[in-house]
Amino acid sequence: MGLVLEKITLEINRRKILKDISLGLEKGKLLVVLGNSGAGKSKLLEVVAGLAGEHEGEIFYDGQPLCGRPPQARPVGLVFQDYALFPHLRVRENILFGLRSRRAPGSEQRRWLEAVSRELRIDHLLGRLPAELSGGQQQRVALARCLVLRPEILLLDEPLSALDAATRERLALLIKKIQERFSVTMLYVTHDHTEARFMADRILVLEEGAVVQEGLPEEIFNRPQDRFIAHFTATRNILPGRVVERHGAGRALVEVAGERLFSSSVPEPEDDVWVCLRPEFLVLEKAGEIATSGVMGISGSGRENRIDGCRIRRLLPQAGATLLVEMEGGREKVRLLAFAFGREQAAMGLGLEPGRELAVRVDPGHVHCLPRHPDDPYCRTPPAS
Predict the structure, then answer these.
(1) Buried b vs exposed e over 182-210: b needs ≥16 C-beta within 10 Å?
(2) Would you say the pTM of this structure is higher than 0.70?
(3) Which one-letter DSSP state was computed for residue 373?
(4) Which of 103, 127, 196, 349 is most buried by a 10 A CB count?
(5) pLDDT for 173-204, tens place per residue?
């Protein structure tokens, strides 16, 4: 195991900022630390870097303890959210600052400056001052300043938050490439779930300084452990439901908004549940047409996990085609968000306009249920208008 944290607790002014955090990350892998503002993400990076002061717990890298070592003696590079470039130094001097502080030979400085600046495509900017650079260019310089020191662990604190969408996409690809190219073990902090899903080998979700779930991206997004994670990872459709029949091994028939859906993920032993339906897993079909086979091997009429009597209420200006779909077949009208991707829907002959009647189908493997208690008021559905 590369980086290991054991029971890390950090208290500032009698307030616990980090609470008993343990994790393990293989060398050369990228762990995204995901959470809301104030969850403790940046403080976790500062603990690893040795900048957070006294804390409880232990940190190891490649079997060697890091606690007790000063920041400069740790194999760690930290890129701050605001980049922290020296405004009076040109790009070349900013990148070489750490190597010169270490009194590295001139040949080593030149070799690494050339290699890293070329890899990050900033070799044509070496003579400029930070004020003459765009935000994306400044971020690349901050990365280069870390990489020339060849850290074994690279810590990135919301590195893309201040950039426009197009620059974020380009730099996200570049950071992933750099991480793989240099085999750097990376902790990457963000509050952006889309960014997290793209970047991560594994994801750690923090809430109020504590770990609420850790695992592969598909586990975090498709099988959240509680309603906070489901909401935070943009499940979007979280509806109250109840278990009607149980079929063993987590499979059950669940009633939601007057409709009945099979689920392969139902908690024991609760019968009151939250039914989580991610928009990307809702399949739109023509109204009135019936599939010729069941879903996931369930035999029957072809109507399993199909909700008829739905109608497009609105098209929303988001990525792809995002629809607000109203379910009208149940006892109450319930609105869902669904994604429709142009070519696929055009091939099916669906007209995507408000008022169009259609059906919605969802695979049982994508009907994820969470416990719901009588005093739990939470129900996240799309806005009414």
Answers:
(1) bebbbbbbbbbbebbbebbbbbbbbbebe
(2) yes
(3) -
(4) 196
(5) 888 888 888 889 999 999 888 899 999 999 99
